[in-house]
Amino acid sequence: MGLNDTPASERVHIGFFGCTNAGKSSVVNAVTGQNLAIVSDVSGTTTDPVLKTMELLPLGPVVIIDTAGIDDTGELGQLRMKKSRDILRKTDIAVLVVDAAAGLSPADVSLIGDFGRLGVPYIIAYNKCDLLKSIPAPAKREIYVSAKSGENISELKERIAALKPEGREKPLISDKLSRGDIVILVVPIDKSAPKGRLILPQQQTIRDVLSVGALSLVTGVGELSDALARLRGGVRMVITDSQVFSEVSRIVPPDVPLCSFSILFARLKGDLKTLTDGARTLKDLPDGARVLISEGCTHHRQCEDIGTVKLPKWIREYTGRDIGFEFTSGGEFPDDLSRFSLVVHCGGCMLNEREMKHRIAKAKLDGVPITNYGTAIAEMKGILKRSLEIFEGTDENGY
């Protein structure tokens, strides 16, 4: 997988924020060297946040986010401002663009407070410095630039790169493998499988297995027994789609480690202990409980969709109780989770780590247990303990 193939969820997300017509879009275009954003003197030209995946040296693969003005007015303006602030949940690095002549506004100061509260590294770019008679000495987090003349744009890119979060390169499963190990990946091809391709968690797991010189064998459920027999005890582990966890568990010998793609993602970008603890609360759901099932992507739902059909059915069967369900997808996630007894989230492969951890933290803040598809299914099928054995001897989140 080359830089251009890096999934958006694994790229550094750089958000550009600022007041209406401070020159955010002009700075975005100057930094990227492309006309990614529409530039106009008309107030409120940028409405919804605009996301663009690209390569940005010296950072590499990134997602650039141009947002609406944080001082927008009117009812529609308030909605735009909320969307801009919501973007902070997935922002790894923030650039606050300020009109150099006007200086910091109350809205800018408020946003800087949000950066600090959410732990988002940031830099303040005072734009239009070419119009100033003299340029003040910038503070540590400040830089004076001109999108029009290009002054200090290269330095701004270097300063952004210096804010890149550390420790992003966490393995999915390769740290548990050695060169030559054989890993069987169980990928069911049914009505819910996308035509002509593998889904992102499967692709990323294959890539991670290959990265250490291990061998990846991809098979369906029907061929799994034959594959195990042919390999004659030489399998290091089996990783399966969560939807067929139960069938695969019956086939795979007890001495062969078994896990799921979804549990690997709980470890990679979530909080494995919290999600595991959340799964164990399923048995305690009372009659009338409401459960939120949330997916990080949007897709065409099939008749046997896992989120809206299979999981509600399995949860009702497992608990034996009358459970109510609500569903969200994509960027939707409730601001208030207090009405729910449990949140069941997808693996989050389409969300970056910051966004996924924000959602987990939000559930914790509201006192609501949260789990994900893989851990919940493993708990309901009675194989959660087995699914976590491969992480024994590590910290509480599997590393």
What does it look like?
With 399 residues, the protein is of the alpha/beta class. It folds into three domains: 3-162, 3-Layer(aba) Sandwich (Rossmann fold); 174-264, Rossmann fold (3-Layer(aba) Sandwich), CATH 3.40.50; 271-380, Rossmann fold, CATH 3.40.50.11410. The protein has 13 helices and 14 strands. The strands form three sheets. The chain has a six-stranded mixed β-sheet, sandwiched between helices. Mean pLDDT is 89; it is low at 40-46.
Task: Please outline the major beta sheet.
Answer: 6 strands, mixed
Q: Assign the CATH topology of the largest domain.
A: Rossmann fold
Task: Kindly give the count of domains.
Answer: 3
Q: Rough shape?
A: globular
CATH class of the largest domain: Alpha Beta
Which radius of gyration do the C-alpha atoms yield?
24 Å
Mean pLDDT: 89
- pLDDT < 50 stretches: 40-46
Proportion of residues in helical segments: 25-40%
What is the number of E strands? 14
Number of helices: 13
Strand content: 15-25%
Give the termini distance in whole angstroms.
Answer: 24 Å
* Helix and strand composition category: alpha/beta
CATH superfamily of the largest domain: P-loop containing nucleotide triphosphate hydrolases
CATH architecture of the largest domain: 3-Layer(aba) Sandwich
Order of the strands making up the biggest sheet: 2-3-1-4-5-6
Topology order in helix (H) and strand (E) letters: EHEEHEHEEHEHEHEHEHHEHEEHEHH
